[in-house]
Write a structure and sequence with these properties.
Length: 162
């Protein structure tokens, strides 16, 4: 029994440390997508710390830095959480900053979750590795006190993170 417990702890620590390394590698990268599909459209690369500026506990106003992104095409690194099991391709999913983020207890704060719906006809293969998400960013403001707002992206493309 002790061997199984040691193995369990070893695996959990390995996954956690691996996730942290990938998160910081993504955060500090200078990867540029030079795809010809997007040469005519300006894409703003953002990072999760920018989304965290919307303090959901105390602030009801959306910071100006985020309102400037509303309706813009963005590119953000992160990880996919499919909303349905047993599917190879999806057109709707959650996007989070780290592979350890989970929609179960405890879920990441709302300023660290992006609800993604792919553009009509765009289905993408489920991936559990790091990805770039490209699409139109939207902020949905809610009147409820416990849920002041959510981030959404109408996804146009998902690229494997190199």
């Amino acid at each position: 029994m002790k061997i199984f417990m040691k193995l369990f702890v070893f695996v959990i620590l390995g996954i956690g440390l691996g996730g942290i390394v990938v998160y910081f590698a993504i955060r500090n990268s200078n990867y540029n997508d030079n795809s010809s599909n997007y040469s005519s459209t300006k894409i703003t690369e953002i990072h999760w710390d920018e989304l965290q500026k919307w303090d959901l506990k105390t602030a009801t106003l959306i910071p100006k830095e985020l309102t400037k992104l509303d309706g813009k095409n963005i590119k953000i690194p992160g990880f996919m959480i499919p909303l349905e099991d047993n599917q190879d391709v999806v057109d709707e999913f959650l996007f989070v900053p780290s592979p350890m983020a989970c929609i179960h207890v405890p879920a990441p704060p709302l300023n660290q979750i992006i609800h993604v719906k792919m553009a009509t006809g765009n289905k993408i293969k489920v991936s559990f590795g790091p990805l770039w998400l490209i699409g139109k960013f939207a902020i949905q403001k809610n009147a409820l006190p416990l849920n002041q707002g959510e981030f959404h992206v109408l996804g146009s493309r998902v690229i494997d993170y190199p």
